[in-house]
Structure formats: C-alpha cells, structure tokens
Write a structure and sequence with these properties.
Blueprint lengths: L8 H26 L1 H8 L3 H8 L1 H9 L1 H8 L4 H19 L5 H15 L2 H12 L5 H33 L2 E3 L3 E3 L1 H20 L20 H10 L1 H19 L1 H12 L3 H32 L5 H19 L6 H29 L5 H30 L7 H34 L1
Antiparallel strand pairs: 1-2
Length: 434
Amino acid sequence: MNNEQKPTLYAWSVVGMLTLAYVLSFIDRQILGMLITPIKASLHLTDTELGLLMGPAFAFFYVTLGWPIGWMADRINRRNIIATGIALWSLATAACGLSMNFTQLLWSRLMVGVGEAALTPSALSLMADYFAPKSRPRAIAVYSTGIYLGSGIAYLGGGALVGMLQDAGGVTLPVFGAVEGWQAAFLALGIPGVLVALLMLLIREPTRREDTGQAGEALTFAESRQYFGQRWTAYLPVCLGMCATTTIAYIAGWNIVWFQRIWDWKIQDIGLWIGISYLITGPLGTLSAGWLTGRWLGHGDRGAPFKVCFIGIVIGGIFAGLFPLMPTPELAFVINAITLGAGAFSTAAGATSVVALAPARLRAQASAIYFLIINLIGLSVGPPLVGILTDRVFTGPSGISPALFAVGVGISIPAILIMWAGLRPYAREAALKT
C-alpha cells in the first residue's frame, strides 16, 4: 500500500477483529481488580500478594516474551500467532477460576501473560501494512480503544456479576460443581476467547511493505539491536515516558479497593461508575489523539505522535495525583474519569510514535520492545508497590490514599521530564524517515 491509497473496508474490518481481541484481553486482564476483596477473603492473601498477582505475575512472561514473539512476527504469519495467543490466555483465565491457593492462581496469571504477549506486537505490525502513514494513527487509535472498552466491560459487567454472585453465595456449575462467585466469574470469561481465536483465522496475512511501497527483508537479531541502539534517543524517551501511563492504569485495581475501604461502596456500584468512565473517556481519548496526530502529520509535523503523547502524560499525571485526595467519592469519580481519558490519549499516540519510526521489517519488534519497557515498569512497580505501602508503611484502611498518591506522582514527575528531553531527538529522527 503506498501513501496515496485510502484504507479499504476490508482493512477496517481487520482493525475491528483485532480490536475485539484487544477488548477481550483487557476484560481477562482487569477482571482480577474486581475480585480482589473476595479472593483475599477466600484464599487468605495479603495486600502484597494481591499486588503481585495484579502486576508481576501477569507481567513476567508478558514482557519477557514480547520481543521474541515480535521477532517471530517479523518473519512468520502474524494472524496465526495472534490466534494461538488468544486461545492460550482464555484457557488460562478459566484456570484462574479453578485455583485453590496463591501458587495456583500465580501460575494461571503467568499463563495469561504468555498468551497476551502475542497480540499487540503482531497486531500493530499488521495494521502498519494495511494502512498508509497518514491514516495509520486513526487505525491504531481505534485499536487502542480496546483497552478502555475491555476495561469498561470488565468493571461494568464484572461488578454486576460479582455482586450478584456474592449475594447468591456462590453457584453450582456442570463438571466443576459448587464454586465461589469469584471462581465462576473467571470460568465464564474463558469460553468466549476460544471462539474469538477461531474467528481470527479468517484474517488474511498482508504483504509486508515499507511506507515507500517496497517490501523489506527481515533483519537478524544482532542487526535489530544495532538499529535500535543507534536511535535510542528517539525511542527510549517515549518508552520511559509511557511508563507513567501504564503504572497509573495498572494500579486502577487498587482504586476499587480505595472506594471500598474509604467510602464503603458496594462492588456493583463501583463497577458501574468506573465502567461508564472507561467506556466514555477511553474511546474519546484514543480517537481524539488519533485525529489530532493525523491532523498535525498532515500539516507536516513529523514529531506529532510524540507531542500528543507528551500532552496526555502531563494531564494524566496531574489528575492521578489528585484522585486519592478527593473529599467525596463523586468528585473522585470525575477526577478518575479525566485521568482515564488522558491515559487513553497518550496510549494511542505512544504506540503510533513507535510504529512511525520503525521500518516495516522491524515494526513488530519495535512494538514489542516498547510494550516490554512500559509494562515491565507499569506492572512490576505499580500494583505491588501500592500493596507493600499499605502493608508496611501506610497501614490501616485509610493508608491506601497516601499509597496511591505516592505511586501516581512518583512515577509521573520523572516521566514528564524524560518526555520533555526527548521532544527534539524524536523530531529529528522522524524527519530523517520522511
């Protein structure tokens, strides 16, 4: 596809399928946040253990396998990689519902991370081949709505489901027998994923092309490292800057606990309002970022993706710090919604920033490295650090407020400074690629 061609209806249908898979991945990823309180009571876990399940347990394989899978996606059929990953993480989600202790739940979460590592590097590479540079930001923005649609559905539907199951005192399922409400929720989420994996096999694998319209040859691993090493001043700032957005996003499970411990809200009420916030501000943020990036690129500003990402990180960091300080739960929901929208804004632009610089033969690996860094920090630092702080420093139910403030502000300040320093290097590298 050359720069003058408009995306076809089929190309947009591929984006729709990939977005559906992304929605499912975030439902399976975020549902744990809705189940923290009943899991803690059932399995007798500490906040530190819960933080490990929300963060490092998922992150370990999710981030370490991203680059190897990206390397594979630059060489073999990306559609098949995605379908295999969806099937794996769906079965692992169901396995979470069969867990009887911390160790079993830990291994199930690890396998969810293995499956989900296959999706985004391959998906971004596919979309880059289906869309020309000027229309690519909109395609990636649509795909990025999957984060917020999936999270919104997880909170909205998950809250209602968990509340209903808790009121019923559990449920009896065929084959599995009597299970607790949180176990039934995990089991129910595993089935749809297998069907989506089969649907993914209907996608056609496109020809890999550079933005000039020429096909590119795959590089060796050593050549890949050399390429990124020579351009680290352009790539690294957006990767490190986006760590703030992912950290704030991944401590959102503790936001639910904050409403429970500080305001004694029921899980279904929390899920309703947070779910609505995700479903409204998330797509609004990603789509507006795609529109603004495309508009600035159309006016010749090659650094547009990075600038849009920077704006979102600044706004998100400010409001993440304000959230746990709010004097009423209603005001906290408003601040949280703004934080979500800013995170969506920076997320869509961050992925576009990386794809815009990478040649076709390295797009999957560039995306994988990007997601490795932002998720390694976001998942490994955010959720467990909040749990450690509430267990050992800010003890008592009210200690979750200063813990959330410390993590949100502590990650945002250095991220903003790094992004500011990277504005010019990114613009220079983007100009050389035109």
